[in-house]
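Project outcomes to date are best conveyed with an example. Our students and postdoctoral researchers have been running inverse folding experiments weekly, and each run begins with a structure described purely in tokens. The record below, which covers 925 residues, was selected by the lab manager from last quarter's runs and is presented without edits.
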């Protein structure tokens, strides 16, 4: 719009401005425009002490414009012009009400589209205008008035007609007609009224503004808040001087114009952009026009800032809990404190309450969670905790005492082992691992050449597996480790670890017995263990070593030597029982071999070396760097007798894979110092594109053993051979046979890995271990993934692992004495993919080929619109400790619903199940 010539002479200019443009402060500036030979100059005016106005040109710089109409003499009563100027039509205003600066996604720039979330249909884009980027105080800014015609009267009232625009700082009022009253600092607007300020557009039929405060009122309005991506309508909107909006008979939604996905309506709604909060009285939430919630008072967020109030409920139906309904309430207590309180009703179990409190105080951050049934568990069927109080406690805290010194508390405890399996939780705990109960401190010392770390921990676990042994507690564990780079090539390292291991009485799982046949309730039975596994005690592990590195761009040679020493002081052992146990497990174990303070010292020498060859090659028009990397490593560690007396506190034999070729030990932990006299041979090759993208990686290798391995962990250790009523999963005899065969092989399985990135969104990974001594497969893994986007993914996988036979169990979950194949052989198919406009399908199928059973079937649909998401999943699964021969599958239906812009769902129920779809980003945002 061009500024026009006012219909009075320049001599009368100050009078017109004085009677028509209102100052927002006792002394304010006003800008008008007058013609100057087809150009316009800006004028600044101010009120003098005597009440008169003084005006003068603000700048000599001229602003080019179109030719202006000839000036007319001032008139007291506006007459109809000979050639009327048509104002904006009602239809145009209606169109703006419908669009509200909305731009569909296809109209956005590529850069802007990349910042939009996956579900976006577009954005509200505020058009460029004068004052849009103004950052000062609009109440003190100059006022600019534009219109096609204007007049004034003796009462200091100015009347503007035709394309009226009043600007002050970032505020702008537009209308067909406007009246400005100097005496009241007040303006009235009628016809196609539009009020703009940074991030806000109000469109109505008529309105007014108090220019000295910015308070504005519009009638029969529509509105949009650009940054909040929210819009709505109201019979009346009041824009207060603090920029809050008060709406009467209002609606609010984050859906784009024309979409009625969800809408909140209220008799009175307040929107505060500064605090990011909305408040509605007598509020009704409708989804697709259907009312789903009424509340006399509703507080809700209008941006991503924290806000107290109810969050969205979750709803599910499962065979264990029945109808399961939870509605969280979030408390934004302070900037550094918050809490989430979640009442939860389960029709088969009762009412549960869960609370999570988080805090940040100085250098300390933490969270405290408490969950539990308010009454005793009401479920009888298959529930060993029927009529019990059930609860869960979780406490985490970390304090940075200094930049190098931290203290940590990580404590979780449950009323029983089935709690997490039965109820799950939002307290960030895993149902598949023991609950951590730890308090500790750590100090990081040293410099660039010598770094060291000292940690002190008291570490206890709560076993959450009903059919497994309890792990050892570490009360305490003190560990010092360091690395000293004495020169550019020589590196010294050391470690000292003192740990006291202990377990409670009755830690050893024996079997399950049917405690209540009518409700099919099983009871787990435990005892104090047998033989060497009864051991508690202290362990001191010391290790020191040195390595020298010869590195070149084409090769490396890295000799290393280290010495490991471990010693124990054991308690709670029965000498006769332990001797009998170890003799049954290992053979030829006598009274002379028994000791409660075993010690082992083992030196280890290794030399690792490799070559790098590379060349440039072109395959199908693509330039690659092709590498060939042969590698060879010799490892020697002598066999030390007497390690049978070393209890197995934290040690296990690791599965063999391609990375095992380059390890110094085949055992994890410190209870076994493995013997070795071997040579590892490997060859890898890669294709690398110019930007560093690795298209293909393939490696193959094998270990040549110069001596049979003699050190092992017998599966029969800790098993009373006289007692037959033991619930053993695998056959220790078959496991022993396989271990002894592997120890006597002259070569390891042939190990290989292949990673083929077909393109940036599709890859195949294969891991193959072939037993060349017996010409059979040892383990195999094949995984295919196609992932063109975060929400488009297809996975297909297969896993095989040779394992010892297992015992067949009867319907009472007891061993029958018969064995069957227990090799792990599983397929895993999963997908998440858009199938139609806004609709996506997702599913997962895990199948146990060995035992011919479904491990998990998951299927669901997800609807994503611009303003809400609905996800419905059906899941059927078996528990990890389920009776394989007589499975008891469970099933459930789970619903997740999110209204975008009105809050997010806090429960992770469906998110947890979708984690099995590898690579799928299932977040709502």
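After processing, the design step wrote out the following sequence:
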């Amino acid at each position: 719009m061009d500024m026009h010539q006012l219909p009075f002479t320049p001599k009368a200019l100050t009078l017109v401005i004085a009677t028509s443009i209102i100052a927002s402060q006792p002394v304010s500036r006003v800008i008008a425009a007058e013609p100057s030979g087809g150009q316009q100059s800006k004028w600044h005016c101010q009120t003098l002490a005597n009440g008169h106005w003084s005006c003068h040109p603000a700048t000599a710089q001229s602003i080019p414009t179109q030719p202006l109409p000839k000036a007319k003499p001032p008139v007291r009563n506006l007459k109809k012009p000979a050639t009327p100027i048509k104002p904006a039509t009602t239809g145009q205003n209606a169109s703006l009400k419908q669009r509200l600066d909305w731009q569909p996604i296809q109209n956005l720039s590529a850069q802007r589209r990349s910042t939009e979330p996956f579900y976006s249909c577009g954005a509200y884009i505020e058009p460029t205008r004068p004052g849009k980027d103004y950052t000062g105080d609009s109440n003190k800014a100059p006022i600019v008035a534009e219109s096609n015609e204007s007049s004034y009267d003796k009462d200091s009232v100015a009347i503007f007609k035709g394309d009226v625009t009043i600007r002050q700082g970032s505020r702008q009022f537009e209308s067909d007609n406007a009246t400005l009253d100097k005496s009241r600092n007040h303006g009235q607007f009628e016809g196609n009224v539009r009020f703009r300020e940074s991030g806000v557009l109000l469109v109505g039929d008529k309105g007014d503004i108090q220019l000295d405060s910015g308070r504005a009122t519009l009638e029969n309005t529509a509105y949009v808040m650009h940054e909040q991506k929210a819009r709505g309508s109201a019979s009346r909107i009041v824009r207060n001087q603090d920029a809050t909006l008060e709406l009467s008979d209002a609606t609010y939604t984050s859906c784009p114009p024309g979409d009625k996905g969800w809408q909140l309506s209220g008799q009175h709604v307040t929107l505060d952009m500064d605090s990011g909060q909305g408040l509605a009285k007598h509020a009704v939430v409708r989804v697709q026009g259907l009312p789903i919630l009424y509340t006399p008072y509703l507080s809700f967020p209008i941006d991503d800032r924290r806000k107290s109030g109810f969050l969205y409920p979750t709803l599910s139906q499962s065979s264990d809990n029945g109808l399961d309904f939870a509605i969280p309430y979030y408390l934004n207590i302070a900037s550094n404190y918050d809490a989430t309180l979640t009442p939860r009703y389960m029709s088969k179990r009762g009412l549960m309450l869960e609370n999570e409190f988080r805090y940040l105080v100085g250098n300390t951050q933490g969270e405290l969670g408490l969950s539990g049934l308010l009454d005793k568990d009401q479920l009888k069927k298959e529930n060993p905790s029927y009529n019990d109080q059930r609860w869960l406690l979780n406490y985490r805290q970390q304090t940075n005492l200094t930049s190098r010194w931290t203290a940590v508390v990580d404590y979780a405890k449950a009323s029983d082992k089935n709690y997490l399996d039965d109820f799950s939780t939002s307290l960030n705990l895993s149902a598949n691992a023991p609950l951590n109960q730890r308090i500790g401190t750590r100090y990081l010392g040293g410099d660039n050449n010598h770094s060291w770390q000292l940690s002190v921990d008291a570490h206890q676990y709560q076993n959450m597996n009903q059919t497994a042994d309890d792990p050892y507690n570490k009360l305490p564990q003190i560990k010092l480790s360091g690395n000293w780079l004495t020169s550019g090539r020589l590196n010294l390292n050391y470690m000292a670890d003192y740990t006291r291991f202990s377990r409670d009485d009755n830690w050893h799982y024996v079997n399950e017995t049917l405690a209540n046949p009518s409700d099919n309730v099983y009871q787990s039975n435990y005892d104090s263990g047998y033989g060497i596994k009864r051991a508690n005690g202290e362990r001191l592990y010391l290790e020191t070593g040195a390595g020298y590195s010869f590195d070149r761009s084409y090769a490396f040679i890295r000799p290393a030597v280290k010495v490991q020493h471990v010693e124990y002081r054991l308690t709670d052992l029965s000498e006769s029982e332990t001797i009998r146990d170890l003799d049954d497990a290992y053979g030829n174990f006598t009274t002379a071999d028994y000791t409660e303070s075993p010690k082992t010292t083992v030196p280890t020498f290794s030399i690792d070396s490799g070559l790098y060859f590379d060349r440039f090659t072109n395959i199908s028009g693509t330039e690659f760097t092709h590498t060939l990397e042969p590698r060879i490593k010799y490892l020697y560690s002598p066999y030390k007798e007497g390690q049978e007396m070393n209890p197995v506190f934290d040690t296990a034999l690791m599965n063999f894979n391609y990375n095992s070729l380059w390890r110094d030990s085949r055992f994890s932990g410190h209870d076994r110092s493995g013997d070795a006299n071997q040579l590892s041979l490997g060859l890898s090759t890669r294709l690398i594109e110019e930007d560093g993208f690795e298209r293909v990686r393939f490696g193959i290798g094998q270990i040549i053993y110069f001596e049979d391995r003699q050190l092992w962990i017998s599966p029969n250790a800790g098993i009373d051979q006289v007692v037959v009523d033991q619930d053993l999963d695998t056959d220790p005899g078959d496991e022993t046979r396989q271990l002894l065969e592997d120890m006597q092989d002259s070569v390891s399985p042939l190990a290989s890995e292949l990673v083929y990135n077909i393109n940036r969104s599709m890859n195949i990974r294969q891991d193959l271990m072939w037993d060349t001594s017996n010409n059979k497969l040892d383990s195999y893994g094949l995984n295919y993934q196609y992932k063109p986007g975060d929400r488009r993914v297809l996975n297909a996988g297969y896993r095989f692992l040779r394992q010892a036979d297992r015992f067949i169990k009867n319907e009472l979950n007891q061993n029958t004495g018969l064995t069957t194949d227990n090799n792990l052989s599983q397929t895993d198919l999963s997908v998440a993919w858009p199938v139609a406009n806004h609709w996506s399908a997702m599913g997962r199928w895990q199948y146990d080929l060995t035992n011919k059973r479904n491990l998990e079937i998951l299927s669901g649909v997800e609807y994503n619109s611009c303003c809400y998401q609905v996800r419905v999943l059906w899941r059927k699964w078996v528990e990890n400790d389920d009776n394989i021969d007589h499975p008891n599958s469970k099933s459930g239906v789970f619903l997740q619903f999110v209204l975008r812009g009105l809050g997010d769902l806090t429960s992770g129920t469906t998110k947890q199940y979708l984690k099995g779809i590898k690579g799928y980003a299932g977040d709502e945002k």
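The first helix runs from residue 13 to 20. Helices lie at 13-20, 90-99, 110-115, 419-423, 575-586, 732-744, 909-914. The training component of this project remains on track.
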